[in-house]
Design a protein that fits this description.
Length: 88
């Protein structure tokens, strides 16, 4: 699940180019978590529309069997990165 993020020079909208790779995982939850955190931080994603785009990317690039895990992990990551940060 290693990805090579790149941002465009356009202001206001972030375009993230991602290279998807097939990966066999013993712990998909942790791999998704690590990947999402890395993508959000590396690309400085904070806007809801950009977060939705990232979520849609993960859903579209992974088989249906992982969609529930992706939604759970995305919620956990966003809660940790954004909600807890605002409370501190």
């Amino acid at each position: 699940m290693r990805r090579s993020p790149q941002r465009s020079g356009h202001e206001g909208t972030k375009f993230v180019l991602v290279m998807a790779m097939e990966k066999c995982s013993y712990d998909p939850r942790e791999d998704f978590r690590e990947s999402m955190v890395e993508m959000i931080i590396a690309n400085r994603i904070q806007e809801p529309k950009d977060l939705c785009s990232l979520l849609n990317y993960y859903i579209s690039m992974n088989s249906e069997e992982y969609h529930g895990i992706i939604l759970e992990i995305f919620h956990e990551v966003c809660t940790h990165l954004f909600l807890f940060r605002k409370c501190n």
